[in-house]
């Protein structure tokens, strides 16, 4: 397969720069059995689901984008914390990367918002894909809890690169699911952004269950597919965890002949990674580099709630693997023609 087969035209005006109120975004309900679709809102999701379970990603986005200066020269620096290592160092992206070589020291702060809170970092080494390994510590404090608090105080919400505006205080709530629990993501599991208390209540009233997994979304979710052939692309590893309770709920749902509905592509990747050939999902934790594209045989997921993704992206290929490439692209072109909003803060699709 060629990556160019997953291209479509999208006006930049349809790339959402701010979210619709939760529950009020448009929802394109795509039926694989009839190769058809209809339009609803995300708050009406329960209308289209039978008794069963939804499985969502409960990862929590942290304000990973930090601004500061070189020490002692004072040149401007931007740092995106990605993930901690077992020894307490951090994988990070830094700018300007060429000037921040091993041994460089930086100070990260925001005197306007958090006077006196200062994080110091030293570049320890270069890593793959332009990353740096940093030693990070809070000035005058010790411990991971102190670092989390400092990052929360001075950090910025790491909005995706296609949102062309600075983050605001509102993004701290808007770019976070209402069920977020486990801190660790630099990007939101965006299908989950559409759920609010009223939507969750309507699902419960309809007898639709709720379970969660955790997959910490890395910056690789925005990684472009540079290969010409789909099969030559690789996705970056991401950490995930599936509890005993969630694995049991999925097993019971399947055993009762009901559907497992994944909320978001991150949930799909975690479940499909952990699924045996018979569809039984195993509890546990690990990393997944699973790249799902057409030809993948789904073992754990029966329906999918997802946002609209970038042309030629690995996430669009996952959707095409689930719904079929022709149906997916036809639905996307309909969404473009009828003014749906795309990407992280955009509208949603339910594939059944």
Provide a compact summary of the structure.
With 352 residues, this protein is of the alpha/beta class.
List keywords for this structure.
alpha/beta, 352 residues, 2 domains, QueA-like, globular, single chain, nine-stranded mixed beta sheet, 20% helix
User: Into how many domains do the coordinates divide?
Assistant: 2
The DSSP helix count reads 7
| Beta-strand share of residues | 25-35%
* Alpha-carbon Rg, integer: 21 Å
Q: Could you say what the CATH topology of the largest domain is called?
A: QueA-like
The sequence of SSEs as H and E is EEEEEEEEEEHHEHEEHEHEEHHE
Structural class: alpha/beta
Shape: globular
**What is the count of β-strands?**
17
CATH architecture of the largest domain: 3-Layer(aba) Sandwich
* Average residue pLDDT: 95
What is the highest CATH level, the class of the largest domain? Alpha Beta
By CATH, the superfamily of the largest domain comes out as QueA-like
Helix content: 10-25%
| Main β-sheet description | 9 strands, mixed
For the record, give the distance between the C-alpha atoms at the N and C termini, rounded to a whole number: 25 Å
Strand order of the largest sheet: 2-1-17-16-14-3-12-13-15
Runs in which pLDDT lies below 50 for 5 or more consecutive residues are none
Q: Could you walk me through the main structural features you see in this protein, from its secondary elements to its overall organization?
A:
The chain is an alpha/beta fold. It folds into 2 domains: 3-61 and 172-351, 3-Layer(aba) Sandwich (QueA-like), CATH 3.40.1780.10; 65-154, QueA-like (Thrombin, subunit H, Beta Barrel), CATH 2.40.10.240. It has helices at 144-154, 171-174, 197-205, 244-255, 265-274, 314-323, 325-337, and strands at 26-31, 36-41, 52-57, 59-61, 65-71, 76-84, 90-95, 105-109, 118-126, 132-138, 182-185, 208-215, 238-242, 260-263, 284-288, 303-307, 348-351. The strands form 3 sheets. It has a 9-stranded mixed β-sheet. The longest helix is centred in the last third of the chain and has 13 residues, at 325-337. The model has no long low-confidence stretch (mean pLDDT 95).
């Amino acid at each position: 397969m060629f990556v160019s087969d997953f291209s479509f035209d999208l006006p930049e005006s349809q790339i959402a720069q701010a979210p619709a109120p939760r529950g009020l975004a448009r929802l394109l309900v795509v039926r694989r059995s009839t190769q058809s679709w209809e339009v609803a809102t995300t708050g009406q999701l329960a209308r289209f689901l039978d008794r069963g379970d939804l499985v969502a990603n409960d990862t929590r986005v942290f304000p990973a984008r930090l601004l500061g200066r070189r020490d002692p020269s004072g040149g401007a620096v931007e740092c995106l914390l990605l993930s901690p290592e077992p020894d307490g160092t951090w994988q990070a992206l830094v700018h300007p990367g060429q000037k921040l070589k091993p041994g460089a020291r930086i100070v990260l702060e925001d005197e306007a918002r958090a006077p006196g809170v200062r994080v110091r970092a030293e570049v320890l080494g270069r890593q793959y894909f332009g990353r740096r390994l940093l030693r990070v510590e809070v000035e005058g404090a010790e411990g991971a809890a102190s670092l989390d608090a400092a990052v929360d105080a001075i950090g910025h919400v790491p909005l995706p690169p296609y949102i062309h505006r600075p983050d605001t205080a509102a993004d701290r709530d808007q770019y976070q699911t209402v069920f977020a629990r486990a801190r660790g993501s630099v990007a939101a599991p965006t299908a989950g952004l559409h759920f609010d208390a009223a939507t969750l209540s309507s699902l419960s009233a309809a007898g639709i269950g709720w379970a969660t997994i955790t997959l910490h979304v890395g910056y690789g979710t925005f990684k472009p597919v540079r290969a010409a052939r789909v099969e030559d692309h690789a996705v970056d590893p991401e950490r995930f965890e599936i509890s005993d309770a969630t694995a049991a709920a999925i097993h019971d749902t399947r055993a009762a002949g009901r559907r497992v509905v994944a909320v978001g592509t991150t949930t799909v990747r975690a479940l499909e990674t952990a699924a045996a050939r018979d569809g039984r999902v195993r509890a546990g934790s690990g990393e997944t580099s699973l790249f799902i594209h057409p030809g993948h045989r789904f073992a754990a997921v029966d329906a999918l709630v997802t946002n609209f993704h970038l042309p030629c992206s690995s996430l669009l290929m996952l959707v095409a693997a689930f719904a079929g490439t022709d149906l997916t692209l036809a639905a996307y072109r309909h969404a473009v023609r009828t003014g749906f909003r795309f990407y992280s803060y955009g509208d949603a699709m339910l594939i059944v």
